[in-house]
Every structure is written in C-alpha cells, then in structure tokens.
Specification:
Elements (H helix, E strand, L loop, with lengths): L12 H28 L3 E3 L1 H14 L4 H13 L10 H4 L1 H15 L2 H7 L7 H8 L4 H14 L2 H21 L23 E2 L8 H6 L13 E2 H11 L3 E3 L7 E2 L8 H9 L1 H23 L2 H8 L1 H5 L8 H13 L1 H17 L6 H17 L3 H11 L1 E2 L9
Parallel strand pairs: 2-3
Antiparallel strand pairs: 1-4, 5-6
C-alpha cells in the first residue's frame, strides 16, 4: 500500500525537481508556441491535435483561456506604452507589473477587448463547456495529480507550477522586458531583449526582437541568439504538426541596382528596422568615432555616447539624453546632419499608409538630399538602399 505522505514516486528530491522542470517547460512551450505565436499573431499554423493538447494542458496548469489571453496580448501590441496598454511598466511602474502582472492581464480582458481583439479564437465544445465553464477545475486536478505522485511534496510542486507563468511570463516578460535589457532595433516602444538565450521562458526573453517583427514565428535574429520556442516549432514542423507562416521580412538585394522604384520603397519599408539598425552601425557609428578622435578631453565622454543617444527611439529618450543630444549637435555639424537625416527617414516611413506616389517621391527626395550632403558613409548607405527590391511572390508590406 502506498504511503500517502510520499506519494507514488516516493521521497526523491531529484525526481520532483526533474518533474517540475519538465511540466513547467511544457507550460512555457504551450504559452509561447500556442497562445503567443499561433493564436495571437498567426505566425505559425498548428495541427488541430497539437493545438488541442496545448489548450488542455494550459487548462490544467494555468486556467488561462485562449480568447482572453489572445485579445489582451493583441491589445498590448496595438496600444504599447500608452494609457490603453493593459500592462505597461512605463505607465504603471515595474514593481506593479512584476508582482501584479496576472491581475493586470485579467483586468484587461474586458468584454470590449474580447470583442475587438479576440476574433479567430476557438469557440468549440471544449472551450465553452470546459475551459470557460470550469476555469479552476483543471488546476485543481493538476494539484491532485501532483499530490498523488509526490505526496506532501506535491503541494510545493503544484505551487511552483501555479507561480511559473504569473512570475516569468506576466512579471518578467510584461514587466522586466519593457524596462531592462538590450535592443537590437529601435522600435517605438520600450521593449528590450532580456537575454540573448531564450531558454527558461521559451524564447520570450527576446522581447525587442518580437516587438520588431511580431508576426515572425522565430524570435532570434542575431547569430548568437537562441530561441528554444523556435526549436520546438522546427521539431513540430518536422513531425508534420506545425507550419511557420513567417520568420520576418524577406527582401531581395540586387548589387549594382541604381534606380529607385516602388519595389525599392516597399522592400526598404518592409525591412525598415534592420535598415535603421544599419544606419546606426554604418553611418552614425563611424562619424561618432571620427568626432571622438577630434574632440578634446572634456568632450570625449559626450561623443562616446553619441551613437547610442542619436539613434534612440523618441520614447526611450529621457531628460539627460536630450541634454546630451543638444550638446552633441551643437558641437558637431556632421553629426547634426546625420541625426536630422535619420529623423527625416523615419518621417518617410510614416507616409506608408498614404498615397503610393507621395511615398515614392518622399523616399527619392530623401536619398537625393542624403547624397548631396557629401558625407561618404551616408552616400554609401543610399547606394545600398537602391539595391533593395521585392522578391517575387512576396507578401504585401506591413
């Protein structure tokens, strides 16, 4: 007869730790692959059986409902860092989001939000009769299973499971990743990559990359970055259970192409975040280094920061940075020019929802004015932009 105090498996610490790591990782995979990349962003298609497995598993381990999670997350992307953002630490404070992230998520799931942002989510028997009708039954069943397996230690195992998503997903991703980390791209929000290796939270650590390309099934973009969620998608695809729909913008680069046409504009527009990243590396950085060598000792601290502050997205610029930018522009005419050209190029992107001819004209004018500055690195940058074009059968720009 089983000793209820130790459960079926017995008093093995390593067995309990291994089990906890496996089941919590399965929950993370369900959140990042099913809820996030499949349901919210349609970045990957999943086989019905795999999708149902994830729905059942999330019911057992989190009690979360697909429509509510999807709608709140879509609203977050549509209203990032504004008063309407359901969980922005820039608005509500990091401490508040870290400790109460789940509460903010649930509060954000209003009827209006579900109606506006929850379209395309499951509305079948399982969702209506089980997930929505009995949201806490699953986690109660999970608690019973854990206690049966590990006895009294199962209570600790179950508590860890229940805290895993509220702390790591709602707290760390929604809070810390909008406050601390590094940025590959200057997106119009505060999203940052927490770590280059997305293992513990399924790749969601690469949050700046995700906000840059939200419809990409793959969250890593640099050679040294690793997205374990993408690894699982590749495995599921190999088994025939998943099909990625997008891994980011695809553009063609034709060496020697010198004519700017609408395909050039669409390609550059699609790839605009990587384009602006190259602007920082190949235009701003070498000129800032050049000015640093020319500066006297008192001004060198300022020019060491020039690349970072001159390429920073407006939402990330604080009062100290504004003072630094003002001082840099007053001290260096060439940095003033390339800073203004960066702002002007960003203004061209803002015309993407308007008339096509106006967009083409604005882009051509920017390229001509940039070449006429006589700044070599800026001219080289323009020549590279002219080589862009849209590959055959590429989706429309976003």
């Amino acid at each position: 007869m089983m000793d209820w105090w130790y459960g079926i498996i017995g008093p093995s610490v390593w067995a309990a730790v291994a089990y906890t790591l496996i089941v919590t990782h399965a929950t993370i995979v369900a959140v990042t692959v099913y809820l996030h990349r499949h349901s919210a962003h349609r970045a990957v298609d999943l086989a019905p059986g795999l999708a149902l497995f994830f729905r059942v598993w999330l019911w057992l381990t989190t009690g979360m409902m697909t429509k509510e999670w999807t709608a709140v997350h879509r609203k977050h992307h549509a209203t990032t860092e504004t008063q309407d953002d359901p969980h922005s630490p820039q608005i509500h404070g990091l401490r508040e989001i870290f400790w109460k992230g789940t509460e903010y998520y649930r509060a954000g799931g209003t009827a209006e939000t579900l109606e506006k942002y929850g379209k395309g989510t499951p509305d079948d028997w399982w969702e209506r009769k089980v997930a929505i009708a009995h949201p806490y039954l699953g986690i109660a069943i999970m608690g019973v299973v854990d206690v049966l397996l590990f006895g009294s230690a199962g209570i600790l195992v179950w508590a860890t499971q229940m805290l895993w998503i509220p702390i790591l997903a709602a707290g760390v991703i929604n809070g810390v990743c909008h406050h601390t980390g590094y940025r590959n791209f200057e997106t119009p929000d505060a999203a940052k990559n927490l770590l280059p290796w997305g293992i513990l939270i399924g790749g969601e650590e690469l949050h700046n990359n995700h906000h840059t390309y939200p419809n990409s099934a793959k969250l890593s973009v640099k050679p040294w970055e690793f997205d374990v969620g993408w690894m699982w998608i590749r495995l599921f695809a190999w088994a025939g259970w998943a099909k990625p729909r997008s891994t980011g913008p695809v553009v063609a680069h034709v060496p020697g192409k010198a004519q700017i046409d609408m395909d050039t504009v669409w390609a550059v527009l699609n790839d605009r975040f990587r384009v602006m990243s190259r602007y920082a590396e190949h235009v701003v950085a070498p000129l800032a280094k050049q000015e640093l060598h020319r500066a006297d000792v008192s001004a060198r601290r300022l020019f060491r920061r020039a690349k970072n502050v001159l390429c920073r997205e407006e939402i990330m610029v604080g009062d100290n940075e504004r003072r630094d930018i003002k001082a840099i522009l007053e001290s260096s005419p060439v940095l003033k020019i390339i800073y203004e050209k960066r702002l002007e190029l960003n203004a061209v992107w803002a015309k993407r929802g308007g008339n096509r001819e106006d967009l083409l004209k604005a882009f051509k004018e920017w390229c001509l004015e940039a070449e006429n500055t006589g700044i070599q690195v800026l001219g080289d940058f323009v020549r590279d932009l002219k080589c862009y074009t849209v590959p055959l059968r590429t989706a429309a720009p976003t």
